[in-house]
Amino acid sequence: MTEEHNLDAVPDTSSQVDAEDYQHFLEDYSHLAPPSRHELIDGRVLAIKNGNVYIDFSAKSDGVAPLSQFQDLSGNYTVKPGDIVQIMVEGGFTAEGCMQLSHEKAARVKIWDNLEQALAEKLTVSGRVLARVKGGLSVDVGVQAFMPGSQIDPRPIRNVDQFIGQDIPVKIVKLNRKRGNAVVSRKLAVQEDVDSRKNITLGMIHEGAVLTGTVKNLTEYGAFIDLGGIDGLLHVTDLSWGRVTHPSEVLEPGAEITVQVLKYDPAKERVSLGVKQLMPDPWQGVAERIAPGSRVIGRVVTVTDYGAFIEIEPGIEGLIHISAMTWSRRMKHPSKVVKPGDRVEAVVLEISPQDRRISLGLKQLEANPWTTVEQRYSVGSVVEGRVRNMTEFGAFIEIEEGVDGLVHVSDLSWTRRIKHPSEILRKGSMVQAVILAIDAAHKRLSLGVKQLQPDAWETWFRHHHVNDTVHGKVLRLAGFGAFVELAEGVEGLCHFSEVPGWTGRKSDPPPLAPGQEADFKVIRMNEEERKIGLSLKAMADAEEFDRLEEYKRKAAAAGSDLENLMPRR
After folding, report:
1. What separation in angstroms does the CA of 281 have from each of 222, 411, 446?
2. Rounded CA gap, 371 and 384, in Å?
3. What is the pLDDT at residue 296?
4. CA-CA-CA-CA torsion for 552, 555, 559, 564, nearest 10 degrees?
5. What is the maximum span of the chain, computed from C-alpha positions, in angstroms?
6. Is the whole-model pTM more than 0.85?
7. In angstroms, rounded to a whole number, what is the distance separating the alpha carbons of residues 186 and 199?
8. Low-confidence ranges of the chain (pLDDT < 50)
9. Mind listing the pLDDT tens digit for each residue in 523-548?
């Protein structure tokens, strides 16, 4: 070692130099003094060999530190000759005469210094999540720190395991250097970043502004878009001019999207967004492209109870109402004719651009059968059809596709009193009927079933007259007389005053009883009103008259015989 580097050769300060000169002397040669323990010093890497790093740190001799102390979390070496590294004196010398150094201790001290500075200045540092521990996560910020579960995110997180192995920003919440404890918070770091980006975003938000955001999450009614510290709602109806049932059809979480601000409430920080507003409105000029009466081809997008929606163009839909699907009245649901995904041809019935509504028709592709019904059918002709529906007043019979006729309950039978068509007809059965009337203008067709058979009343009146004797059976009694069945479906009335022996007193029993059979005299006939008057009294008088006539006839015959027996003079 040279003499000029020998500190033992320092002259006596009391005799050779004054105090000021001595101070200058110390300052000039202090860099040659060996560093103390726990002192952070910088050194330059001279060489790397045999698992050691040789470092020049401006002392009497070089130093050496294990190469293993210069590794990152992935196990890669982070040092090479010429690098400036921080070290601390470990103490002692190696066999080569090199002072033992520690980069690990220097790094630990430096880390704690940096953490204390981050805590004091509220700085954000980076940490790697090591594992899940009780109550939170273990995070490496240079030292192993604890992050409580409540400090992971501003919002509740269900799956905290997603952060394991991830590098995350954190804030230092609490430090105890002596015990080696540190508590960190990702929540504060994230919230600070959110607040920072939010302030920038708020300055850009106004109605009509076009912004770029990230799809945060999807719901049934829309998507929430992160605009940068503030979320906006993109409603499902503002995603496209076309029909979108669920946002997942066009969006996915994490995707970047350009949106337009539709409404903004600064007080509540509510933002309504739209995407379709950035594209031309397809309804503009639709009246020039699609005219009433024209035919269009589209795809069935939705089928409801009242009809089907057809996409004619992207963003343009028309409705085929259930009543415009077929000329037949028997269709119960539109799904019997079309289903989602079908491509169909339809006729444009009406266009209302201001209401964004187009009415379409399927049945208009074919001729209306009612327009020619009077040429194809005539009153009095017999037709055959299927019973489609029944009500209390009658039954509807389909005689062809789209043409139904009504058989009124009074036209089901000449003889029976029908209360409901189901007494004679069965739904779905095939029946014959006579056309009674045709009203094509109002799409009405009157049919009759009983007209297939002769009218029992008409036949009875044709073969009977007043004073005829008829046989009948009492069906039912009224307060004034008895209804008597003369033939199937034909009834006559015998008033009690026409019954011999009837006194008219209420205390007397009825002179006739249901089920009783007798011969009656026809005393009145009214074919138009279908009324027949009967009399037992007239019948008794006729019998009495007949007996008297018979007696006279017999008496006359007896007198003639007596005269023949007398002797002639």
Report:
1. 20, 59, 51
2. 20
3. 93
4. 110
5. 229
6. no
7. 20
8. 1-11, 13-17, 25-26, 29-32
9. 999 988 889 999 998 888 888 887 88
Q: Is 21 helix (H, G, I), strand (E, B) or coil?
A: helix
Please give the pLDDT value at position 32: 47
Find out whether 472 and 534 touch, Cβ atoms under 8 Å.
yes
User: Amino acid identity, residue 529?
Assistant: E
Residue 16's pLDDT is: 47
For 440, residues 6+ apart whose C-beta sits below 8 A from its C-beta are: 370, 371, 373, 374
The kind and range of the H/E element at 133 are: strand 124-133
Quote the CA–CA distance of 556 and 166 in Å, as a whole number: 142
pLDDT tens digit sequence for 191-203 = 887 777 777 777 7
Residue carrying structure tokens 């089928």 = 303
Q: Determine phi and psi for 29, rounding to 5 degrees.
A: -115, 5
Q: What is the pLDDT of residue 219?
A: 92
Q: Which residue has the tokens 């995707």?
A: 255
Spell out a b/e string for 359-368, using b for 16 or more CB atoms within 10 Å of the CB, else e: bbbbbbeeee
The secondary structure of 337-371, three-state, reads: CCCCCCEEEEEEEEEEHHHCEEEEECHHHCCCHHH
C-beta separation of 334 from 325 below 8 A? yes
Give me the domains of the chain, ranges plus CATH numbers: 3-107 (2.40.50.140), 122-192 (2.40.50.140), 203-278 (2.40.50.140), 290-354 (2.40.50.140), 369-452 (2.40.50.140), 456-542 (2.40.50.140)
DSSP class per residue in 425-464:
--TT-EEEEEEEEEETTTTEEEEESGGGS--HHHHHHHH-
- In angstroms, the CA 338 to CA 537 distance is 73
Distances (CA, A) of 199 to 146, 196, 205, 232: 30, 5, 10, 15
What is the C-alpha to C-alpha distance for residues 40 and 216, in angstroms, rounded to an integer?
47
